[in-house]
Design brief:
single chain; about 300 residues; alpha+beta; 8-stranded antiparallel β-sheet; 5-stranded antiparallel β-sheet; 13 strands
Length: about 300
Amino acid sequence: MRLSEVHPLLDPTPMPLEVGYERLSDGVLHVANRTDMQDCTGEMFEWWFRFRPDTQQYIWWHPVDHISSHWTEVQQGTHIGSIHVALEEFTGFPAEERSIQFRDPTEFFDAKAYRAARESGAVSAAVCAHSGYSHNPKRNKDGKVLGGRLLHIGRDTPWGLALRSHFYVGQDLAGTITPTEMEQRFPDPFGQALLQHCYNEFTFLSHFLPSLFIAENRKTVKIATPWQLRRNSTERFFSSYILPNIKIETVAQPVSRRQNAIRFAQIRTLSGDRSGFLLRIQRRGCDTQYYCFDR
């Protein structure tokens, strides 16, 4: 899939290449990855780039590969236009400094289609950029950084953010050097390393982003405590499985042992004439429910 063919990213339908890498005919190395960011949202994801992590926070993001971070041409209130100068390794490849210039997503997608995807919920986050190969990368006459491209497109789900990441390594070198020279500069093992690096960094990020986001925005966002979240998720868990004429009154916290889970809830018929309990036991893929009503 060439950079000019990325429009299917606006649709959650699986694409031919969701995770992997390929060498395009002009030598460009296309890398694709998907990361399931549990308990994260598109709002959190875009905020992270507006937050502009410093070196310490950048190391949180990937404790193995990330080394240092600073920002230039900062744009207040948005990440678009800012440049992130980052020193990082790529899963064993030597450390390199890169300048990531964030751009408006409509430079990569049709504006009308992008707007429709945001409104429908098919896209809840879009972070797109030009990537240069030093702290002072080459630019075109319009000031755009020359080098590669990156696109992070996210969609909110009940469990978190489904993040698709696509990289076009050497995009601006296409036509200026031969495909063979491109492959020598960016060999296939680098594509594999970049894929792993991307998956690792956004998995690491998902472990702390929800807490950091609500801590930094606690005056403007509604905060649900972990106890509330656990209770609500257990209630939803029951409500999708019990009989339609029964309501849940109270839910006990689940008990888990390895691959087994036991959940208990007090229930009552909608008519109110009978009450009792529901016991649900899951073990190694087997799901059993027991109803017991007072006579």
